[in-house]
Design goal:
disordered C terminus; six-stranded antiparallel β-sheet; about 180 residues; about 25% strand; alpha+beta; single chain
């Protein structure tokens, strides 16, 4: 009987501790979940506002084939463009890019949401000076190592793969916002 007691008492105590811990974690989640959702929604709006400054608000996000598309709305609720999130493979891994595209098919802004690029090289894609190169560009943006043309951007020094990945993400965003949505 003493062997059973040696095993049963610690098992019961550990089970009780686990149940109480699980209950407390569940209660904490129940209390904090609404605030976390509110903060997350506010952060999403701020990020969208970075790439589409003229939007008064944003519509419902839809997702298809790994691309998320959110209508940018004016003060009257009319669609003035889209905020598109795309993911492309860079040198160090996936690069998640948020792009604003107006109804004329022009880029209004680009933001790098996440990346694993090399510090000092590909990570420079996150700098405003690089991201602003895409503003006003239309479908078919290309990367140039020399003198960029009208619809091309200058590649980051030592980070051509990253430059091409971001450009490919921006082109995918323009395409996703296009078709019957443009005009």
């Amino acid at each position: 009987m003493s062997k059973i007691k040696e095993f049963a008492v610690p098992t019961f105590v550990l089970t009780l501790i686990c149940l109480i811990s699980a209950f407390l974690l569940g209660m904490t989640n129940e209390i904090t979940a609404p605030k976390i959702a509110e903060i997350s929604a506010e952060n999403e709006k701020k990020a969208r506002q970075v790439v589409f400054e003229s939007a008064a608000s944003f519509g419902e996000t839809t997702e298809k084939d790994g691309i998320s598309l959110t209508p940018a709305l004016d003060e009257n609720g009319a669609t003035i463009g889209y905020v598109v999130v795309t993911v492309e493979k860079g040198y160090g891994g996936d690069i998640e890019v948020m792009t604003g595209v107006d109804t004329d098919g022009k880029v209004t802004g680009v933001d790098i949401l996440s990346h694993s690029e090399t510090a000092g090289l590909g990570a420079n894609a996150d700098k405003v000076t690089f991201r602003d190169l895409f503003k006003g560009k239309t479908a078919g943006v290309t990367v140039s190592k020399d003198a960029p043309g009208e619809n091309s951007i200058d590649a980051l020094t030592g980070a051509t793969i990253t430059s091409r990945a971001v450009t490919k993400a921006v082109n995918a965003a323009i395409q996703a916002a296009g078709g019957e949505n443009i005009g």
